[in-house]
Amino acid sequence: MSGIERNPGGETPRVRLSRRAALKRSALLTVGLAGGALLQACGQGGTPPAAAPPAKPTEAPRAAAPPTAPAAAAPRGEIVAAMSQDLQSMDPANHVNISDWSVHRHMFDPLLEKDFDGKFVPMLAESWSPVDDTTWQFNLRKGVKFHNGEEFTAESVKATMERMPPGSQLVQAGLLWTSLKEVEIKGPFYTVLLRGSLPIGSMLHNLTMTEMLPGLGHERPGGVLPQAGWDRTA
Question: Domains of the chain (ranges plus CATH)?
Answer without folding.
Answer: 98-218 (3.90.76.10)
